[in-house]
Design goal:
single chain; 252 residues; 78% helix
Amino acid sequence: MGSSLAKPKRTYLTVAAHIIALYLPFAGLLGRQRYQRLLRELAQGVPGAREQFYCDGVARKSALVVVVIVWLSLSKEQYPFQLEGVTLATTALWCAYVGALVAASVWFFRRHGDAQLRLLQRLAGGLLPQSRAEIQWFKVVAVLAGVGEEIVFRWFLMSYFAAYWGTSRDEALYASSIVFGLVHLYQGALGVLFTGLMGWVLGSLWIQTGTLLVPIVLHTALDLRILLIATPERMAALNASLSTAKPRSGRP
């Protein structure tokens, strides 16, 4: 993967690229407002609130991914999805490796991850599915995030910074990771930090392996593993233990 890109000459592609790039941090603010509204609706017991949140999110993200894919199909100044010389065998080996790491993390966190789950509950507990229908929707959300966010934040955004701002490949990686973190503003400052760091890891994996398919597989697997770790039964048990552990006010 080259370190820099030539600036595109087509004016309409330039305008479109700037609009998309400016929208992404703004989407973080919108996402925070939507998440706060979801929490209020869940507290009020609004039926289907979480499913509606999933549905709206899928529609919004799908539209964004389609727009970005159209831009990528028209622009020649972009980092390649996969470098020449990267073989199917190498890609499969990398995918198997990251798959094994995710499987190992599932095994570990199912046995020892209560502290991490409490943190997840605090950062984004409203997104965790409870019913069977919500679990099915969450699968769609996870796959779309794994595929779509890699296309938008790694493929498009790194190409954007390199082509329009003259950044090096590494600078584009850092800049896109910051934006990726800001888009997760609804998780608070700690969530922004965590997701920004994860964006850097995923982008570095693209650079290291030479194919975007590997970070797509990793991102999707990481999101789907939540269904195996943060099950409704386990989260209910954790919440119950927290409730009983709280000190009672007043004298005995």
